[in-house]
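Course assignment 3, question 2. Fill in each field.
Student: A.L.
Task: Predict the tertiary structure for the chain below.
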Amino acid sequence: MGLLKQNAALRYYHIYLHTMAKPSLLLIDALRKAATQLSNNKPYEWGHMGNCNCGHLAQVLLNVSKAEIHRHAMARPGDWSEQLNDYCPTSGLEMDRLMFGLFEKGLDTTDLQQLEYLSNKAVLQRLGVSALRHNDRAHVVSYMRTWADILEEQLLETLPLPVAQPDERPLSIGVINS
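Answer field:
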């Protein structure tokens, strides 16, 4: 398969087949914590790499400041989406190391690009809307909370539930009839 066909196939996967991040308690908690901080009026500025949608999640997941994220991001041009397109694990750039840290937490480039633009189809469908304003604090909060709920449901589906065997008797709690 030629390089153009490979890129087209990857683009198709990320747009149409990609579902979302690997569910984990850490990521679910981080999404909810970032949403709570935003709803409690933590500074928000979509045009600031450390204070935007991805920046707020990165602050919580990686325990870095908005200033650190912004400083790392200024080493090359572009917003989160563009920088994710240019991600190179061997570049030595601090922003690429930061992105790798997010990937280690279960996210991928598509998850982060969709967070930056509030565009994951499953989240939008759950919210009952076709689009959100990516730079609207209330929309970001709703998106993060809904995404966390979906991930939590996915995580719960993977947990084994105990099944009672047919020959097991109910536990006696020691109640004596008088």
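Instructor remarks: Residues 37 and 159 are 29 Å apart (CA to CA). The two ends are 80 Å apart (CA to CA).
Grade: pending
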